[in-house]
Amino acid sequence: MPARSRQRIAFITDGLLDVYQSELRKAFERAALREGFDLLVVMGRGLGHVNPAERAQNAVYDWLTPEAVDGAVLLSGALMNFLGSASLEALVERLGAIPKVSIGVELAKLPYVTVDNRAGMRASVEHLIRVHGCRRMVYLAGPSDNQESKARLEGYRYALEAHLLPFDPQLVEHGPFTLEGGIAAMQALIGRGRRFDAVVAANDTLAIGARQVLTAHGLSVPGGVRLIGFDDSPLAASARLSSVAQPFNQLALHALEALRGAMQGRSPHRIAFCPRLALRDSCGCGEAASLADLPAVRVGQEVSEYMATHRLAMAETLQVANAASFDWWSTRVERLLRSLESAVAGKEELFLQTLDELAVEAFADGLPVEQIGRNVTRLQRHFQGAKAHGLSRAQLDGLWSRALTRLSAMLGDADRKKRIEMFERSVALRDASMNLWGAEDEAQLGRRLASEFAKLGVHRAYLGVVCGARRDCFQPLLQLETTGAMRCDGAPYDRRQLLPPGFPSGETPSTLLVASINFGSQVTGIWACDGGTDIFVFEQLRTELGAIFELFALRRALLTRDSAGVPPPRHITEPALSAAVVPAPAIDEDERTRKYQHRR
Questions:
Q1: What's the angle, vertex CA 575, arms to CA 573 and CA 578, rounded to 5?
Q2: Measured in Å, how far apart are the chain's first and last C-alpha atoms?
Q3: Are strands 511-519 and 522-530 parallel, antiparallel or unpaired?
Q4: pLDDT band at residue 77 using 50, 70 and 90 as cut-offs
Q5: Which residue, 235, 231, 234, is CA-closest to 209?
Q6: Which is more confidently placed, 497 or 573?
Q7: How would you classify residue 103: left for phi > 0, otherwise alpha for psi between -120 and 50, otherwise beta?
Q8: Do the Cβ atoms of 325 and 371 come closer than 8 Å?
Q9: Angle at 524 between CA 519 and CA 528, to 5 degrees
Q10: Higher confidence at residue 373 or residue 365?
Q11: What is the mean pLDDT of the chain?
Q12: Which phi and psi (to 5°) does residue 578 adopt?
């Protein structure tokens, strides 16, 4: 295999549709590309998934070899949801000599980077006890054989014991880390008829599901029941859910450093971060509560005097209010405060320009831009009752109003653009589906797929099928580069390489999403797209390609039966290319395109 110009590493996960996996992927991708690595985001499903069709997608893990990647990071907590640590250890063995790092789960044989789940959950429960006087807290525990879930349950029990409160197993319910899991667990707990004054969940998605059930039963949050989740994902921020903040950026940076050390043969890098509480409305700690400890402004006190005296307290308040992005804000709070000082001295434009810059940086780094607006609101509340040197009260109020209006307009534009893109993408996906299902064979399928990519936001892609008697090689059907260069006739290559030699090309580091193509439990091919591809588009095309490959196999089997005079098989299980079958009849591609356009 030709030497690659850059080192290539894999980020192994069970998918990107859940917020936790998506946020960690984005943080790790930023770090990897910045350090000059090519990144493969390798997506299978949970190890030992209960659905055989889902479990079959884990074939992609077997395709990772030292020839394919130089190192791998495992999102372990998500991968082990169904079978626990034993399945994860088996995957580590399957990956063989590849240098590896675990995120989220401590493994004896690997470097790992995780959070102190016990401490995070204990802090959450103790907050409910000390600040809100809660005494009977139900707990949505997550999967029973998940290491992170177990540690968080221990944190819940430790907090109860520390405050001499009894542990009641009837107030605990296990379930998957999903919205449906939260709904089912909360319904089961309510069905037991036990009294409770708070709900603590092992992740944010469980908490959101629980709130749906609480509302349906007439229990308001936080008036009737207080609620806290875990992870502090963007979902929590938008839902005003109190949560335990996972430091995604720190986890990603240290995981990359640990992997670099493993690749260089250095001693294992092992670290556990202490998470922070992100307190919001769902537990009764809204914005007003978050400002309670800040020294009050004296009536008539000038803003410049107040800022000079309480700058550190202000900076800490802003950082704590953004617990999940603490590190991001720690390098930017000073910029924001300096620009505010300029504004109250009469240089308003610098403050507004700084807000614009922070919004652009937050968007680029995958942070909710709404955080900027919330921090402006916090600053405004800090200074109620203060006066600005050289500015009237009305002028100072006008400054806050213009800042929030500017940010609101940016968010409105971004939201409208996103909605339009989603609509256009859905239409393009429908049209692409109709076009692909009309293909007669793999070669035509590759050409048709390439013709749809621009409308789907796909700029680089690879499609190959499993071939060979031992299924140990891939036959490329389509290679599309960001330059627009395309090949549909690549030579078969060893499966251990994962991707064709020389793909992807380019002078700058890049990201590819990689998954297997399946029809039911049958593995038929490999599918890769550039990292900017919408994950729903990637998954939808992957599913449709698996079904289309099966259709091709069925057509060949029927043609073979007709030519040989044998009865048809009951089920077709081998959709790979084969020289032994009768090829599909040739068809005029231009004529087919004209017919298709006419139908549309």
A1: 120
A2: 45
A3: antiparallel
A4: confident
A5: 235
A6: 497
A7: beta
A8: yes
A9: 100
A10: 373
A11: 82
A12: -150, 135
539: how many CB neighbours lie within 10 A of its CB?
18
Q: Note whether 244 and 236 are within 8 A (CB).
A: no
Amino acid letter at 164?
Answer: L
Residue from 365, 319, 323, 161 nearest 229 by CA: 323
Nearest to 505 by CA among 66, 72, 38: 38
Distance CA 261, CA 175 (A): 36
Lowest-pLDDT range, 264-268, 302-306, 536-540, 556-560? 302-306
Separation of alpha carbons 598 and 591, rounded Å? 11
Please answer whether residues 524 and 575 qualify as being in contact, where contact means their C-beta atoms are separated by less than 8 angstroms: yes
Identity of residue 244 = V
pLDDT at 32 over 70: yes
Name the token pair of 315.
Answer: 């900076």
Q: Are 207 and 140 in contact (CB under 8 A)?
A: yes
CA distance 27 to 24: 5
Kindly indicate the confidence band of residue 298, based on its pLDDT and cuts at 50, 70 and 90.
Answer: low
The total of other beta-carbon atoms located within 10 Å of residue 365's CB is 13
DSSP three-state, residue 528: strand
Q: pLDDT tens digits for 396-450?
A: 777 788 888 888 777 777 667 777 777 888 888 888 898 999 888 888 888 888 8
Chain CA centroid to CA 384, Å: 39
pTM recorded for the entire structure: 0.75
How far apart, in Å, are the Cα atoms of 492 and each of 85, 217, 447?
37, 59, 18
Q: Distance of alpha carbon 144 from its chain centroid, rounded?
A: 23
Angle between helix 333-344 and 393-437 (nearest 10): 140
What pLDDT is stored for residue 271 in this prediction? Answer: 87
Q: Which tokens go with 61?
A: 């893990």
Local structure of 465: helix, strand or coil: strand
How far from 237 is each of 22, 105, 507, CA to CA, in Å? 15, 25, 38
- pLDDT recorded at residue 565: 61
% of the chain residues with pLDDT over 90? 37
* Radius of gyration of the CA atoms of the chain, in A: 27
Q: Which two tokens stand for residue 586?
A: 């040739």
Question: What is the CB neighbour count within 10 angstroms for residue 187?
Answer: 16
What confidence tens digit (pLDDT) does each residue in 554-579 have? 888 787 766 666 555 444 343 333 33
